[in-house]
Specification:
The complex is a heterotrimer of chains A (148), B (528) and C (302). Chain A is built from five helices and five strands. Chain A starts with a strand and ends in a 19-residue tail after the last helix. Chain A has a single domain, classed as Cobalamin-binding domain (Rossmann fold, 3-Layer(aba) Sandwich), CATH 3.40.50. A five-stranded parallel β-sheet of chain A has the order 2-1-3-4-5, with helices on both faces. By secondary structure, chain B is of the alpha/beta class. A five-stranded parallel β-sheet of chain B has the order 1-10-9-8-7. In chain B, strand 4, helix 5 and strand 5 form a beta-alpha-beta unit. Chain B is globular and about 80 Å long. Chain C has 13 helices and eight strands. In chain C, strand 6, helix 8 and strand 7 form a beta-alpha-beta unit. In chain C, helix 1 packs across helix 2 and helix 2 runs antiparallel to helix 6. The relative contact order of chain C is 0.13. Chain C folds into three domains: 38 residues, no CATH class; 201 residues, P-loop containing nucleotide triphosphate hydrolases (Rossmann fold); 42 residues. The chains are: A alpha/beta (148), B alpha/beta (528), C alpha/beta (302). Strand 2 of chain A pairs parallel with strand 3 of chain C.
């Protein structure tokens, strides 16, 4: 898989994003890390130019409520409906449904095992190969839950 | 039975003896607290003279609401203020900048102009309160606003006391809120030092921070080494800019984290004082003894807080706070237990403050100085942390110093490797975290809710900004901004130019842009 | 849905995608590049012939930390403000153990995500001897067909496979930096002889003059040393000059030969490894019935 890991907004805490990027690389994926302070528009452009299959976005600043749905919306508008979007950071549980509604397929909070990230990617691959919806604009109500 | 295969070592990897003895501890510390190299503390009687400053970092949404929180905290017995700014402010962006969308008022208070600063300190006596501001790239702008408000109120600014973080090197290494290239950033910092020496001699011009380096994944050794090597770079820059070391070094302050490994953390603070004393004397030969004394603020490690079983965090914070007090901290921030879930609530931040008050008033530890000194374990760890950090600092020297090492990603790579090693250890179950990979409960995620913010804040802040821009003297604004640019470009003290600019209501974004045009911007290597 | 290119069936034909890419659709170009990278398309399939060498595809190589990406960013903004369109292929190594890769060169190229006249694409080497350089050749040709005036190929000049990749470029620029003067000798056998130009970057740093002098004297032992230019990606000193020179940079005769040799080896590897009986050959060698040397003597000598 080609996976973009991005830090939208102004938050500079990239410890988690970098660890996730490395774990996904070690799991055999090609990971493009964007660096800090990317706008939603820039992130979508990276996804398009790099022809990514998945996009992981991380924010610890509380701006996820605005930034994550905006990125999903721009992806859909750009026709990237098949890109799978997942997120991480400090995302209160009660704020997650709205992110899932915007097309995200997983939210990983603090303490997530890297193993679980790989399992999620594996689940996405198997859904793609069996033609089940998993992209940001493909609808359906599937979201990742740990232990799947 | 002891598991024969288990290797016992500290979080930084120092092997732990089963029963520490003279072989581990070496010669016992003979120096007294208050005497060089200050391993046992910087004051003779430590907390008997004065207890540590309880300084809770706070700030959210608007200046008005944060001001109310400040007044409440002071009423509850907090002894100093610590301002958290939102990310647009930390990056020197106006609230109506496109990049600020979604971030205004989120992790702290939004300050766009002197108007917001007036509201922030409304009804607070600026002559007596000590104020700490977590601000770096635009530190001189926020400090200028603070000074300008004090002057408007007729406060004698030479009495102002507090700290601006103003530590850009750790932003490149670990925290990410940098804007300008390294050399230009250092110039802004030394300009502030020159200005404060003349005008606000009680103000701490920089708080050299290991906290964020540690949070990003560094070990205790890396935290010490990277922080003190950054400090050496600042001292060198200040000396190169024409200051005498004794003119600014006594106003340097430090900021560390306190993590979970209890004894290692206590030892880390002791080693830090000793190391700084020797580094300063070996390299800069100050004549004022205060120039080589390491004073520091501590914050409990945010990264140790779990979203799972969040009340457990109160216990973690308590132990961490205890280690910093036993290590001789000058001030302390205790985290709220719900910070891995969202923004702290009134209740959780009150418990955090109460934790310190219990420690200071009920446990008796404030009545005795360096009570762990003389323990073979603590003395041995202190020596080992001292030696290992010193060695790493020498490695950085060999790279050409902190700045060149940062440009080459040296510290960033080190930290990323340590963060990775910790993740792997945790995933394998070699490192246990209660509620995360041990002692789990069926309910995986807490239904606790963070503080919710008024979503209309961003818009309100933007409207305010529009009206400020419409009603100010635009000629004076252009003139002041041109002056900032000119001074940045051609030399002179930027701090004075910025102070003149904030007084005529230039916004933070406008002043930053004037500086950016001259200095350019920069992106640090990520270390991956 | 969730299949192939994520486009409708009729649009999935490489030629159709190619046409869309030529008409300026970034997403189509990106999809086509994926197919190129996967070895799913060829010049024939796209109906184009291999490009004639004209100096428009430039390899930029050099050790980590010399500032290649920053230098490229400077070139991107200089050239695009002159009205040119530029594409970049940023190559990073794949892990030999897992096949994964971390592609981070975009971070330091601000134009990559802002400038409409720039297209940056990250490639992982994927440990395919032979395959990767071919993919880069086709990718560069495709980009040139899509109106990108210049294609830059960025590699870390560390390993043999990276040298092979950069050898497909029309011209090669080797980037050095101060503090690295001593290492030039060691690299001479590798990429230095391929270079049509050497850029000593970070000229703002103390000691850059000395570094340049070291590099020049190290190269004096070679016949016909390439031109050397001092730049600073940080202060932009020397960038204008570099941007101008690169547009008309002549190939260095010796470098052409060295590059031809690398390309030949690439083609050779590729031909060898795509033999139908390659697995049997390898099995035979692995069970040490024959030595590799003997096999080559017997089967490939003429």
């Amino acid at each position: 898989m080609r996976i973009v890991i991005a830090k939208p907004g102004l938050d500079g805490h990239d410890r988690g994003a970098k660890v996730v990027a490395r774990a996904l690389r070690d799991a055999g994926h090609e990971v493009i890390y964007t660096g800090l302070r990317r706008t939603p528009e820039q992130i979508v452009r990276t996804v398009i130019d790099e022809d990514a299959d998945m996009l992981g976005i991380s924010s610890l600043s509380g701006a996820h409520a605005f930034l994550f749905p905006r990125i999903c919306q721009l992806l859909v508008e750009a026709g990237c409906i098949d890109v799978t979007v997942f997120g991480g950071g400090i995302i209160p549980v009660d704020e997650r449904p709205i992110l899932f509604d915007s097309g995200m397929r997983a939210i990983f909070g603090p303490g997530t095992k890297m193993q679980e990230m790989s399992e999620f990617v594996g689940a996405v691959i198997s859904r793609v190969s069996s033609n089940q919806p998993v992209g940001v604009g493909e609808g359906g109500d599937w979201v990742w839950s740990s232990g799947e | 039975m002891v598991d024969e295969n288990k290797v016992f070592k500290t979080r930084a990897g120092i092997p732990i003896p089963e029963v520490p003895d003279r072989d581990f501890g070496g010669e016992l510390q003979t120096s007294e607290p208050g005497s060089p190299p200050y391993t046992r503390g910087i004051h003779k009687s430590m907390y008997r003279e004065k207890t540590w400053t309880m300084r809770q970092y706070a700030g959210f949404s608007s200046a008005k609401e944060t001001n109310e929180r400040f007044i409440t905290l002071l009423e509850k017995g907090q002894s100093g203020l610590s301002v958290a700014f939102d990310l647009p402010t930390q990056l020197g962006l106006d609230s109506d900048d496109e990049m600020s969308l979604g971030e205004v008022g989120k992790v702290g208070v939004a300050i766009d102009s002197i108007h917001d600063m007036r509201l922030l300190f409304d009804k607070i006596d600026m002559a007596s309160v000590s104020t700490s501001m977590t601000i770096n790239a635009p530190a001189s702008i926020l400090f200028a606003m603070y000074v300008a408000v004090a002057q408007e109120r007729g406060t004698d600014i030479s009495s102002l006391k507090g700290t601006i973080q103003n530590d850009i090197l750790k932003e490149y290494i670990a925290r990410g809120t940098y804007v300008f290239p390294p050399n230009e950033s250092l110039r802004l910092i030394t300009d502030v030092m020159h200005w404060c020496k003349e005008n606000t001699p009680r103000w701490n011009t920089i708080s050299i921070s290991g906290y964020h380096i540690r949070e990003a994944g560094a070990t205790a050794v890396e935290e010490l080494a990277f922080t003190l090597s950054n400090a050496l770079a600042y001292v060198q820059a200040a000396v190169d800019s024409g200051l005498d070391v004794d003119e600014f070094a006594p106003r340097l302050s430090f900021f560390f984290g306190c993590h979970n490994d209890f004894f290692e953390e206590v030892s880390k603070f002791r080693a830090a004082r000793k190391l700084w004393y020797h580094l300063m004397n070996d390299r800069f030969s100050p004549s004022n003894p205060k120039s080589s004394i390491l004073r520091f603020h501590t914050q409990t490690a945010g990264v140790t807080l779990t979203a799972q079983q969040p009340l457990n965090n109160i216990v973690r914070v308590s132990y961490q706070a205890l280690s910093s007090v036993l290590g001789g901290t000058q001030s302390l921030h205790t985290n709220s237990f719900d910070e891995a879930i969202g923004l702290p609530t009134d209740e959780s931040s009150t418990i955090a403050l109460r934790t310190q008050q219990i420690l200071a008033n009920e446990t008796g530890i404030a009545d005795v100085v360096d009570p762990l000194g003389g323990s073979w374990y603590i003395e041995g760890l202190t020596t080992k942390l001292y030696e290992q950090s010193k060695k790493l600092i020498e490695e950085i020297d060999a790279c050409g110093g902190a700045l060149t090492a940062i440009e080459n990603g040296f510290q960033q790579r080190h930290i990323h490797e340590s963060a990775w090693a910790e993740q792997v250890a945790q995933d394998k179950g070699e490192l246990l975290v209660i509620g995360v990979n041990h002692a789990l409960e069926s309910q995986v995620e807490s239904d606790l809710k963070g503080q919710s913010l008024d979503p209309s804040l961003g818009e309100a802040q933007c409207n305010l900004l529009t009206s400020i821009r419409a009603n100010r003297n635009s000629e004076a604004v252009s003139e002041a901004l041109a002056n900032v640019h000119d001074i940045a470009q051609n030399g002179g003290n930027t701090m004075q130019a910025i102070l003149d600019a904030v007084k005529v209501e230039c916004t933070i974004g406008e002043i930053m842009n004037a500086l950016k045009e001259s200095f350019g911007t920069w992106m640090a290597p990520s270390g991956v | 849905m969730g299949t192939g290119y994520g486009l409708a069936e009729s649009e999935r034909l490489p030629k159709t995608i190619f046409e869309q890419a030529i008409s300026g659709n970034r997403r189509s170009l990106a999809k086509l590049l994926t197919a190129v990278e996967n070895g799913e398309v060829s010049h024939e399939l796209l109906g184009i012939s291999p490009r004639v060498v004209d100096g428009s595809v430039i390899g930029v190589t050099g050790a980590p930390g010399v500032g290649k990406s920053c230098l490229i960013e400077r070139l991107l903004s200089t050239w695009t403000s002159d009205g040119l369109k530029i594409a970049v292929i940023a190559v990073d190594p794949s892990s030999p153990l897992t096949g994964g890769a971390l592609l981070g060169d975009r971070i330091r190229m601000e134009s990559a995500d802002n400038n409409p006249n720039v297209f940056v694409r990250s490639f992982a080497t994927r440990n395919q001897p032979g395959g990767m350089p071919n993919a880069v050749v086709l990718a560069a040709d495709v980009m040139r067909h899509c109106d990108y005036d210049i294609v830059l190929i960025e590699t870390v000049g560390a390993g043999q496979s990276e040298i092979r990749i950069v050898s497909v470029a029309d011209r090669i620029v080797l980037v050095e930096a101060p503090l690295r003067g001593d290492e030039v000798q060691a690299e001479k056998a590798g990429v230095v002889e391929l270079a049509d130009m050497i850029v000593v970057n970070k000229s703002d740093l103390e000691g850059s003059d000395r570094a340049a002098a070291n590099i020049i004297s190290a190269l004096e032992v070679t016949s016909n040393p390439p031109p050397i230019l001092l730049t600073s990606a940080k202060t932009a000193v020397g960038i204008e000059d570099l941007a101008v020179q690169l547009r008309t940079l002549p190939a260095k005769p010796g470098a052409e030969l060295a590059r031809a040799r690398e390309r030949l080896l690439t083609a050779w590897d590729s031909a060898l490894l795509s033999r139908k009986d390659i697995n049997e050959v390898l099995d035979g060698l692995a069970s040490s019935e024959n030595s590799a040397q003997e096999w080559v003597e017997k089967n490939l000598r003429w």
